[in-house]
Description:
Blueprint: H1 6-9, E1 16-17, H2 20-23, E2 31-32, H3 36-44, H4 53-57, H5 64-73, H6 76-87, H7 93-99, H8 103-107, H9 119-133, E3 148-152, H10 156-167, E4 171-175, H11 184-187, H12 197-208, E5 212-214, E6 217-219, E7 234-236, H13 238-244, E8 247-250, E9 256-257, E10 270-272, H14 273-284, E11 299-303, H15 307-319, E12 323-328, H16 339-342, H17 354-357, E13 361-364, E14 366-374, E15 377-389, E16 392-395, E17 401-404, E18 407-410, E19 414-416, H18 419-425, E20 452-454, H19 457-460, H20 465-484
Parallel strand pairs: 3-4, 3-8, 4-5, 6-7, 8-20, 10-18, 11-12, 11-18, 12-13
Antiparallel strand pairs: 1-2, 9-19, 14-15, 15-16, 15-17
Helix pairs in contact: 3-5, 3-9, 5-6, 5-9, 6-9, 7-9, 10-20, 14-15
Residues 58, 60, 62, 64, 90, 96, 100, 102-104, 119-120, 123, 466 line the site of iron/sulfur cluster.
Amino acid sequence: MGKMTGFMEYERIEEGYKPVPERLKHYKEFVVGLDDAQAKIQGARCMDCGTPFCNSGCPVNNVIPDFNDLVYKGKPADWKNAIALLHSTNNFPEFTGRICPAPCEAACTLNVNDDAVGIKSIEHAIIDRAWAEGWVTPRPAKHKTGKKVAVVGSGPAGMAAAQQLARVGHDVTLFEKNDRVGGLLRYGIPDFKMEKSHIDRRVEQLVAEGVTIRTSVLIGAMPKGSKVTNWAKETISADQLKADFDAVLLTGGSEQSRDLPVPGRDLDGIHFAMEMLPQQNKVNAGDKVKGQLRADGKHVIVIGGGDTGSDCVGTSNRHGAVSVTQFEVMPQPPIEENRPMTWPYWPIKLRTSSSHEEGCEREFAISTKEFVGEKGKVTGLKTVRVEFKDGKMVEVAGSEQILKADLVLLAMGFVNPVATVLDAFGIDKDARNNAKATTDFTGGYVTNVAKVFAAGDIRRGQSLVVWAIREGRQAARSVDEFLMGFSDLPR
Ligand SMILES: Cc1cc2nc3c(=O)[nH]c(=O)nc-3n(C[C@H](O)[C@H](O)[C@H](O)COP(=O)(O)OP(=O)(O)OC[C@H]3O[C@@H](n4cnc5c(N)ncnc54)[C@H](O)[C@@H]3O)c2cc1C
Ligand code: SF4
């Protein structure tokens, strides 16, 4: 334990943000991380509890009290040990240190009646220093196994799995239908939350560790007319892939956006969030996007109150929208959770993102009944207030109104993976149409099809980056066991 009395002496230190007017002018990250001295104080607040709930609250089970202690001690060797420890559970702490919602902090014992330790900000500080010091280097395998593994989908699950499998000596090929590696990290999450150079550095590391990257290659099939991003120039059939590789791991994500099939849906100006967000990330990467979907000068309504909706708010404000409103069908949650009732679990409470702070009206308990328009273009939404009675959503009589909108972004989550990808392999689906596979210690991530595995959002449904990394790591161990009869990879 760092400092016995640290939690009583020091307040939690939050990471800072650059001012709104300044950050709205660009798409770069604007979080100001902790400096070493601040991280030390933050680390000193950790109580090193007998039962570290943070450790089980973290989906990759980061060994949080130990790295807090090392950062508190603060010598260069301690920081170096801290990154070694962090990498032992998490392949990409720079991703999670930036965009993880930090369920670990909800589970921190201090959070029962005080402010949690700023675990995420410490993680962020450790990995940023590690990159700056040159401590993050490739770790190629000493021996090759001669086994060939195909990983289909290069999001955080696919990247983590590819890295783990390459490090134990397998010949890994990472396939991606889009033109760059990273999945939703690359073409969903805006640069202002996570700049893409962080992915590029890891791609270089993967290549140096022996992973073959094949972008713009679709495995299986996509439905005709699909709005899901697909910049493939080549298609490889599922059968061909199975013939060419000793094992196949599907990490294709859950890409089918939830639609809102109410009258007027076919009007111009109504788009999935995942039509707009990838385009902006492409432009940020220096690509030209013909007829880019933009919010300049428009009244924007974002339907959906989650992360994706919030990212649409931030992007629309950077485009120069006249107004941005975000709808959430659920009632407004409490500002403060009832901690004794919720700790150590993830509480439901009002979450205000940095994008909300940049300018956004938030409407709760509101439902869209119809899109209205003129000359084929959307001009507004007919809405109604809703409430929950006996667990059922009912409309509030007389609460209908029409709200102005020139651009509507549907950000209501993702229903399931693209069915044609799973069907191409003949994968059984679960009740929610995800790839059916357990997470059991033995035989986990195995599908019904011989030598084909599934992990990440394609298996668990729409989730978080940290869960994708966990599943990629665990599935890699399962694939390794299948190929070698045993595995030294951690779960
Ligand atoms: C806008 C947005 C914001 C988000 N914000 C956050 C956040 O702040 N924090 C957080 O933790 N999570 C966030 N998430 C969720 C998070 O990004 C996902 O849970 C995570 O990326 C899932 O990882 P994955 O590797 O399973 O799949 P994905 O990241 O979806 O990657 C799957 C990849 O597989 C490729 N692919 C699919 N099928 C094929 C095929 N047949 N052939 C070849 N390639 C294929 C896809 O093109 C894609 O690149 C956000 C999601 C979105 C959409
Ligand atoms: S990965 Fe997420 S949950 Fe785990 S320690 Fe980091 S911020 Fe917390």
